[in-house]
Amino acid sequence: MSPVALLLLWELGARTGVIPANVLAAPSSVILTAWRMIASGELPWNMLVSLGRAVSGLVIGVAVGSALALTAGLSRAGETLVDPPVQMLRTLPSLALTPLFIVWFGIGETPKIALIALGTSFPIYLNLYAGIRGVEPRLVEAARSFGLGGRELIAHVILPGALPSFLLGLRFALAGSWLILVVAEQINASAGLGYLINNARDFARTDVIVVCLAVYALLGLAADAVVRALERRALAWRPAFIKS
Amino acid sequence: MAFANVHMLPQVQPPAPAARPTEETAPSPPQSPTVRVRGFSRRFGDTEVLRDLDLDIAPGEFVALLGASGSGKTTLLRTLAGLDPADPEAVRAPANRAVVFQDARLLPWKRVWRNVALGLAGLDAADRARAALAEVGLEHRMDAWPATLSGGEAQRAALARALVREPRLLLLDEPFAAVDALTRIRMHGLVLALWRAHAPAVLLVTHDVDEAITLADRVLVLEKGRIAAEERIDLARPRDGGPAFQALRRRLLNRLGVDPGAPPPSPAQSSPPEAELLAYPTGEIL
């Protein structure tokens, strides 16, 4: 009830002039603007651009993070080679690297995708690495006693055992990719949700800003739903999922 | 022989080999033993867990290993399972061996039949797994997730997983300690039936004197890393706890430092080895 009441109050405030339109547009005008932006194709197109950036960065980040985690998790040599530098770098907030990335990669698509890739590779690495190292030693031992070794042990025991941790990492990575996307899109973008917001800011179009914020929120929700569905499928063996 | 008191009892015939000479009369048996341990020692840091240990297990023989906690039982089993390193000169065990652990150790992310088929090669792996599960009465649960099995079902699945490999040596590490008393009785019957059908040599590590007498051809008592006593059991199976059973039980309990005549002491009074034995009071129920 209270969200509806809040919306009504907001609408009322806007209609009576208590909330001026250049501070916050009325819900009705936000909906109208959203409709217009969808109909003109402006919103879907820019959303697709943003989504493309997030997905490309995420794919690269997940691939790099997984490769590093497998290297460090499955071999001692890999651990000494990979883990210390990654643990060092992870303390650095990815967004702090924005200026450096602009110097390196210019102001096109590359720094945006690179920032997202960097920011998502850390949660994947940390969780997958911990997951591999945290696989129940009793199960590894049992599998070894049945003659499993090397590749088979990794495929049947270690990777499935680390999968829950990987999916947790993926959830963090998705949330991170969204956050970084918002900031990265402020870098001289000529398309995307960030570009729409920047434009709207210059013209004090609070209705457009609110529409874009709502789209960010909806995309975030959708991403979470995807991971949840993935978990339900991949972790069907877990007692929590067996009942349902 | 390192055995302290070898009893000259008539030899029990295990199911597979029709005849086997007693070790007392024939020092070098013509049939080479499935397990041969000679002068094996193992230490962890300063503690010597196993000391100069000798052990033979004949093909198809069912041996139970009794001992208090810390007597080295599990270390010996792990060595025979190839889970702990050992000098191949001192320890000879077949490569074709399988372990059933106290906790079933099924992989939770594989359905029951895939757990049984774990590591099996060949296209018929699924059929073999199904057959093994049918043998332990779990065919109807073959597609279940391990997390949904009861303790007894999980142990039966673990038995199927071990037997599907047709091991020459079956190692049982207190496999019934964690299941309830009624299930344990059923599991004893199942293990005997499976042993008769597949005829592996069996080493059963247990705390439970009655379980050892109920199942085994030979009971060994491990104490401070050495085999301190050995009893051959020639009672016909099923063994129902008659006078001979009780006499054996008394002897073994005495050997383990428990007075079977005394009323059960409260845990506070008992010394550690006794407490260990009383923690599994199957004997009283059987």
How would you sum up this structure, described in words?
Chain A has one domain: MetI-like fold. Helix content of chain A is 80%, strand content 0%. Chain A contains 11 helices and no strands. Chain A is elongated, with a radius of gyration of 23 Å. Helix content of chain B is 30%, strand content 20%. Chain B has 9 helices and 9 strands. In chain B, helix 4 packs parallel to helix 5. Chain B is of the alpha/beta class. In chain B, the strands form 2 sheets. Chain B has a 6-stranded mixed sheet with strand order 5-6-7-3-8-9, with helices on both faces. Chain B has a 3-stranded antiparallel sheet with strand order 2-1-4, covered by helices on one side.
Which structural class do the helices and strands of chain A define?
mainly alpha
Mean pLDDT of chain A: 91
Spatial strand sequence of the major β-sheet of chain B: 5-6-7-3-8-9
CATH architecture of chain A: Orthogonal Bundle
Query: CATH class of chain B, anyone?
Result: Alpha Beta
Largest interface: A-B, 22 and 21 residues
Here the CATH topology of chain A equals MetI-like fold
Describe the sheet with the most strands of chain B: 6 strands, mixed
Query: Whole-number average pLDDT of chain B?
Result: 81
Give the CATH class of chain A.
Mainly Alpha
Beta percentage of chain A is under 5%
Query: Domains counted in the coordinates of chain A: how many?
Result: 1
Helix segment tally of chain B: 9
